Amino acid sequence: MIAVRFADKKKNTEQDSDWNQMRNISRAQIRGEKNVEKFVINGGHPLKGEILVSGAKNSAVAILPAALLLDVPCMIENVPDISDVKICLKVLKGLGAEVKALGNDTYWISCRNVTDYYVPYKEAKKMRASYYFLGALLGRCHNARAAMPGGCPLGARPIDQHLKAFEILGAKQLIEDQQSDIVELHADRLHGGRISMDVVSVGATMNAILAAVKAPGITIIENAAKEPHIVDLANFLNYMGAHIKGAGTDVIKIQGVEKLMGNAGEGSQDVAYRYAVVPDQIEAGTFMIAAAATRGDVLIKGVIPKHLEAISAKLRDCGVTVEELDDEEAVRVCASADSKLTATNIKTEPYPGYPTDMQPQMATFLTIAEGESSIIENVWEDRFRYVNELRKMGAEIDITQNGAIVRGGSGLSGASVNACDLRAGAAMIIAGLMADGCTEITEIQHIERGYADIAAKLRGIGADMKKV
Ligand code: EPZ
């Protein structure tokens, strides 16, 4: 039984209605009325030309909730046009924020009228990043309530480190039932504290920053994650007046501030600060691997080459040419038809190690690299569901205890496959581009959570790919 304290009747009614909608969706799915959109790819064409990378999903989904902490409006640029961002914007509007789209990738956001702290159940369940509303709302209202976050099925995805950080900063969980699907937090007053993370967690590090940035006193986060999106969130908040030092290292120090208003005067509502989200490291890496896997020659633009070092190093190991063009903010990836591609070994690790979010794409590429490649997955317990799909295309991959062995060298053949999750879906696209014949990919809503307009972007470099 779920004990809900302090939850008013209105919120319970809203939750019931969310539940009813969830039930309706499930029934529709049971009746076979599934999402039938799919990608159709005729493979075997080397990708050639230039492709532009969008803003980073995993930055944008933290920076948009962070707008709740600001005391003035802001303008956020380079926001990717993906469904996870649309959900974030919907939640912000639902909480009472004013959001105006200025072109494709720029949003003006003012949170001056936000008083609610309830993230609708249905939206929270649609994406992992809904947990950032907990940190941001706690920092703003000292109250936050959301369902346990959804997202890709990658095995257990606990949030104990997030809750530990909130508690150290002065928050209490109002629902103590371990089985509860709802997280509700309240703090009479927030204060700084020393948070030593038991595991390196991107989400918990971001959430600790969000909750601590306006908490009086000093907060120290030890064993912090170092991903580029952590630095991006800290840069955004610092730009608005926060005092965060050490983002990008494993110790982050935050001096709480009263207001986040950049250089604007008290009560200013017209000044809109502009901040651009960093380029998406994982989208860029996906294009790099697609270029190599089709033995193409692609200039991937609008990237920070340093963020791609682990991916570039592995591709080079396999015999792919990768040129880092720092001044042009680009990388060029090329593998000619006669270049020998060879096996390599991969171990996924937090940044700056090889990213787990690039593991399925690399495994797919390794099916054409001669020899046996070993993959060890150290971050997620269940990130090999794509292997069954690749086997349908002729891949020889065995699953081991925490990894996989890819026996490469033979090609793939087109087949009907499923995008089991976001990055598995990206791997299916790469497989389809490499394969002989036609590949159909279903469940593409997973892919659209994180890749903006991917079919059109890849068509721009020679892919025969369409959404039907
Ligand atoms: C972020 O997830 C990304 N999502 C994931 O990207 C990415 O795979 C992951 O970081 C690792 O890089 C977003 O940024 C929205 P974690 P997150 O907390 O923050 C354990 C994609 O495809 N853990 O760094 O949820 C956890 O089980 C997605 O874009 C705890 O034990 O990941 C995992 O083993 C998929 N307790 C490890 O830490 C906690 O409280 C790392 O997870 C939190 C995490």
Brief synopsis:
By secondary structure, the protein is of the alpha+beta class. It has 2 domains: 39-54 and 280-467, Enolpyruvate transferase domain (UDP-n-acetylglucosamine1-carboxyvinyl-transferase, Chain, Alpha-beta prism); 57-276, Enolpyruvate transferase domain (UDP-n-acetylglucosamine1-carboxyvinyl-transferase, Chain, Alpha-beta prism).
Task: Write a structural description.
- This protein is α+β, with helices and mostly antiparallel strands.
- The protein has 15 helices and 23 strands.
- It folds into two domains: 39-54 and 280-467, Enolpyruvate transferase domain (UDP-n-acetylglucosamine1-carboxyvinyl-transferase, Chain), CATH 3.65.10.10; 57-276, Alpha-beta prism (UDP-n-acetylglucosamine1-carboxyvinyl-transferase, Chain).
- The chain has helices spanning 9-30, 57-66, 83-95, 121-126, 132-141, 160-168, 202-212, 228-239, 281-293, 309-317, 359-366, 386-392, 422-434, 445-448, 454-459; strands spanning 39-42, 48-52, 74-77, 98-101, 107-110, 143-147, 172-173, 182-186, 194-196, 218-222, 243-245, 251-255, 273-276, 297-301, 321-325, 330-334, 345-347, 371-376, 397-399, 403-408, 416-418, 438-442, 464-467.
- α13 (422-434) links the parallel β21 and β22.
- α9 (281-293) runs parallel beside α11 (359-366).
- The radius of gyration is 22 Å and the shape is globular.
- Strands 21-22-1-23 form a four-stranded mixed sheet. It has a four-stranded mixed sheet with strand order 2-14-16-15, covered by helices on one side.
- The longest helix is centred in the first third of the chain and has 22 residues, at 9-30.
- Mean pLDDT is 90; it is low at 1-31.
- The protein binds ligand EPZ.
